[in-house]
Amino acid sequence: MAQILAPSTQWQMRISKSSPNATPITSNMWSSLLWKQNKKVSPTSSAKFRVLAIKSDNSTINRLEGLLNLDITPFTDKIIAEYIWIGGTGIDVRSKSRTISKPVEDPSELPKWNYDGSSTGQAPGDDSEVILYPQAIFKDPFRGGNNILVICDSYTPQGEPIPTNKRHRAAEIFSNPKVQAEVPWYGIEQEYTLLQTNVKWPLGWPVGGYPGPQGPYYCSAGADKSFGRDISDAHYKACLYAGINISGTNGEVMPGQWEYQVGPSVGIEAGDHIWASRYILERITEQAGVVLSLDPKPIEGDWNGAGCHTNYSTKSMREDGGFEVIKKAILNLSLRHKDHISAYGEGNERRLTGKHETASINTFSWGVANRGCSIRVGRDTEKNGKGYLEDRRPASNMDPYVVTSLLAETTLLWEPTLEAEALAAQKLALKV
Fold first, then answer.
1. The GS catalytic domain covers which part of the protein (predicted)?
2. Going along 17-170, which residue ranges are E strands?
3. 418: Cα separation from own chain's centroid
C-alpha cells in the first residue's frame, strides 16, 4: 500500500481542535524538527512533523484556518456566490466567485455574468466573452453561512447556447407537456476513482504495482481494503449540507474506487444535482491532495471500470401495469442503442466489454436482476408488476443532462415504425 505522507485535512483539523492548549513551537523545536527532516526520517516521522506544526495556535496554518472558517454573517448582509459551469471538455467544472448584496433564494435573483471562453476552449480569442445564466442554487459547504454555489449554463452574448451547454436542450425536453405529465424520476449512481497525486495511480495501491485481486474491497472496512473513506464521508455530509439529494455511498469493487447515489430526482433537477455533487467532490479531493478521476476504465486488465448507472421511471411505470410500459421503453431503447452509446461518455468502449458486470457496447440486451445486461430490471419490479429500469450503459464521465433527457426523449417522445417495433420485440422476446 502506498504511503500518503500528509494526513488528511479532516485529521489535521481533528488534531488542531482537540489540542486547544498546545504549546507554540519554539525556535529550538523548529531547529530540532528541521534537523530531523534533513536526516531523512521515515514517512511516519514526516507525517508527525506536519501534525506538530499544525498544533501551534500561532502558526500560519492555524491563522489561515481561522480566516477560512470566519463567519461574516453578523457583520454584513453580503454573500459570496460561486458561479459554476462546465468547461470546454464537457466534463471539467470551472468556477469563480462574486459578491452579492444580500442572500437570495432563487436563481432569478442573481445577475448573469461572463467569463473568458478562450481560456476554457469555448470561444475564440477575438470574441471570447461567454455569458453565464444562473440556473440552480445550493448552500456552500466550504464557506458556510448564507454563501451559495450556483450551477450555470453558458451562452453567447447573442443568447445562443454554446455547444457544451447540454442543459439548454435537456430543459427543452423536460418542459415538453408529454414529459412533464409523466414526472420522470432518476436515481444516478456516480462511480469515481481516487488517484495518488504525483503518480496518478489508485489510492492505496503500491506505486507501480497492484493490490490483491478484486473480491475483498466492495463495501469493505479495514486499512488493507478501504482507501479514501474520509473523502467519501466528507463528500456525503457536504452534499447533504448543500441540499443535494444524495441518497447513499459505498466502496466499489476496485480498490480506491467509490460510488455515491443521487436521487430520486425529477427532470432537469437530476443533472443539476449531479454536477453540483461533482464540483463538491473536486473541491474535497483538492483539499485532501488526491486526484479525482471519472475515467470509465482507469486501470486496464482484470479490474472493474467506473460507470454512472441511471435508474429511471415514469408515472406510468410506477403505477399498476407499469411493467408493460417498462417493456415498451426497453424496446424503444433497443432501437436507439447506437444513439445512446454515442452520448453516454467518452472512452466507454474500454469499459463496456461484456466483462466486469457490463454488457458489450455493440449488443443491446436486457434482463431481470442481470448486471451483465444493457438494461437491468429489478426482481421487485418484476414481482410487483411496476417500478423502474436501470440503464447500465452510461460511463462515469457522462453528462447527466444528456443521459437523463435522452432517456425521456426515447421513451416518451420518440416513436419507432411498426415494422421496427415488431422486429425488436421478437428479437428481445418482449410482448408489448
1. 163-432
2. 79-86, 93-100, 113-116, 129-139, 148-155
3. 39
Give the 3-state secondary structure of residue 217: coil
Superfamily (CATH) of domain 177-428: Glutamine synthetase/guanido kinase, catalytic domain (3.30.590.10)
User: Which of 298, 297, 311 lies closest to 392, judged by CA?
Assistant: 311
How far apart are alpha carbons 104 and 234 in whole angstroms?
26
> Residues 232, 260: contact at Cβ < 8 Å?
yes
Q: What is the pLDDT of residue 318?
A: 98
CB 107 within 8 A of CB 95: no
9-17 vs 60-68: helix crossing angle, rounded to 10: 100
CATH number listed for the domain at residues 79-161: 3.10.20.70
Pairwise CA distance, residues 146 & 373, whole Å: 45
* Residue whose cell numbers read 454554446: 162
Q: 79-161 with 177-428: one CATH topology?
A: no
Domain boundaries, the chain: 9-68, 79-161, 177-428
With residue 249 as reference, give the H or E element that holds it.
strand 246-251
Q: Which distant-in-sequence residues (6+ apart) come within 8 Å of 132 by Cβ?
A: 83, 85, 112, 113, 114, 115, 152, 153, 154
Q: What is the pLDDT of residue 76?
A: 96
